[in-house]
Design a protein that fits this description.
Blueprint: E1 2-12, E2 15-25, E3 28-33, E4 44-47, E5 52-55, E6 57-62, E7 64-65, E8 68-69, H1 75-86, E9 90-97, H2 102-116, E10 126-129, H3 151-160, E11 164-169, H4 176-185, E12 189-192, H5 199-207, E13 210-213, E14 224-226, E15 229-231, H6 234-240, E16 245-249, H7 257-266, E17 272-275, E18 294-297, E19 300-303, E20 309-311, H8 316-326, H9 331-338, H10 340-346, E21 363-366, E22 372-377, E23 380-381
Parallel strand pairs: 1-4, 1-5, 6-9, 9-10, 10-11, 11-12, 12-13, 13-16, 16-17
Antiparallel strand pairs: 1-2, 2-3, 5-21, 7-8, 14-15, 18-19, 19-20, 21-22, 22-23
Helix pairs in contact: 5-6, 8-9
Amino acid sequence: MLTQIYNGHILTPEGWINSGSVVIEDGRIDEVTRSSHIIDRADVKVDAEGMHVVPGGIELHCHGGGGSDFMEGTEEAFRTAVNAHMRHGTTAIFPTLSSATLPLIEKACETCSQMMRQPGTAIMGLHLEGPYFNPRKAGAQMPDAIRMPDPSEYTHIVEDYDCLRRWDVAPELPGAIEMGHYITGKGIIAAIGHTAAEYPDVKAAYEAGYSHVTHFYNGMPGFHNVREYKHAGTVEAVYLLENMTVEVIADGIHVPIPILRLIHRMKGVERTALITDALAVTASDSKRAFDPRVIIEDGVCKLSDRSALAGSIATMDRLIRTCVRQAGIPLHDAVRMASETPARIMGIYDRKGSIQRGKDADILLFDDNIDLHAVYAMGKRVE
C-alpha cells in the first residue's frame, strides 16, 4: 500500500520542509519531498495542511497504560498498555518493570521476548528499573523488592533472555561498578537511578559504563550539606559529566517548568530525552493504580501518604505540549527530545527517530496548538 501525506510542515534532520510530502510504502518512508503534488497511484492520500508532520515518539520509561501494567507480565497486559500509548503518539516503546522478584522479572522477560519477534511490533526491548537501588531513595519502588546487586541473578537474566536493553542501578551500592562493566559489555545501557550518589560515585559509574540517568532530578540528591560541608550531588555530577544523557518526566509536575528549561539549556537536545514514567491508569478510565499504595491527585500519581511522587499519567503528546506551551521550548527541539534523542540513546536511530527515506514510517501530525491529530506507526494509522 502506498500512502502520501502531503501539504504538511515536515520536520526532517535537515530542518523543516514547508508544504512537502512524505511517501510511505510497505511501512517504510519511501520519499520525503518538497512538493505537495498528489501522486495518482497513492492508495491513501492525507492532506496535512496546517499540520506539523514529525517523527513518532520513542518511550524509554513507561510502566503501563490503558489500565494494564507491564508488571503483570502477560501478553494481554503488554498489548493493552502499548496500544494505549500509541494512540497518544508513542510509536516505539521500551516497557519498564519496577523493582520486582526474580520470577516476576522472568515472566516479563519471556513475554517481552516473544512480542519483540512479532512483525511490526512497537516493543523495542525491556527496561528494568531496579531492583538494585538505594533504599533511602526508593520513592515509590516496592521496598520489599529492593536488594543489592547479585551477580548470579543479573547474569542469569542477561544470559538467558534476549530482550533486555537497559538496566537502572544505584551506582554507590556494593557490586554496582562491576555490574556496570558486565552489562555494558553485553550491549545493555547502564543507567543511574534511585540513588544517593555524590560526585565521586557518579564519576566512577561513568567510567564503568553508566551513560544515562533515570528520571533526572527525581530519586537523586542535588547540592546538599553533610554537617558543615557542602557536597555536589548526583544532579551536579551529571551536569559536569557532559556526555551523560538524561531523561526527564516532562509532565510539568515531576520537575518544575524552570528546571525543565534548565535541563534543555544545560544538557541540550542531543542529551535529553522526554519520558512519561506512566503508570497503568494512564490513558484509561481507571481511577485506581496497579499499586495499592498509589493515589491519583493533582494530575499525577503519588504515594497515599504523599511522601513521594509515584509516576505520571502523562502521554507522549502531553510531554511535547508541556515543553512547547509551558516551558517555551521550540517545537523542533521538543520533538527531537521525544524521538531522535531516545532513538540515539537506545541504538535504534538507524530505523526510528526521524523522517528519512528508508526508515520506519512512524509519524505524528500536530496542529499549531500542539494538539495531536493523527498517529502513523509503520505506515498504518493508529485508531
